[in-house]
Amino acid sequence: MAASSLYPGVMLILPDAAATEAFGRALATRVRPGDMITLEGPLGAGKTSIARGLLAALGLAGEAPSPSFAIVQPYAPPEVDFPVLHVDLYRLDAADQLEELGLEEARWDSLLVVEWPDRAGPDAWPDALALSLEMTPDGGRRLTAKVPEAWEQRWPI
């Protein structure tokens, strides 16, 4: 049985920015090299906040910059516990540009955290932990997770 049917539309409410980063820190306790996490949501929804919390919990000192202009921001030991690529596909014009980024090769030994995964096409990364964020009227965030089979023993956070 696929885990997405075990956990259909898992939803959490993150009441503020601190809770969003705290979710990222909690998520860091479950990740390992070879994982992929995708983060969807409109501008300002908290995608980078989750990534920053995760990176801080993996040992990054200081605030992680948004990879909007670099597209791929790599982190490696001793800066973090294991290799992490923080990826922002917002500026990608077409899905075929993905090959140039070398993300599939990096999955062997790195955690990939990908913002704006829709730019990769609808069939990209079906095995990723897919997190979607929506802003709520009270300033919080609604996080919905599509949990793949590989995360079955690690979910919920």
Automatic annotation (TrEMBL):
GO MF annotations, alphabetized: ATP binding; metal ion binding
GO-annotated cellular components: cytoplasm
Key words of the record: ATP-binding, Cytoplasm, Magnesium, Metal-binding, Nucleotide-binding, tRNA processing
Cell compartment(s), UniProt: Cytoplasm
InterPro entries in the record: P-loop_NTPase (IPR027417), T6A_TsaE (IPR003442)
GO biological process terms, semicolon-separated: tRNA threonylcarbamoyladenosine modification
Primary localisation category: cytoplasm
Statement: the UniProt record of this protein carries the keyword RNA-binding: no
Signal sequence extent: none
Keyword Cytoplasm part of the UniProt annotation: yes
Family recorded in the similarity comment: Belongs to the TsaE family.
Name recorded for this polypeptide: tRNA threonylcarbamoyladenosine biosynthesis protein TsaE
The organism's taxonomic lineage, starting at the top: Bacteria, Pseudomonadati, Pseudomonadota, Alphaproteobacteria, Sphingomonadales
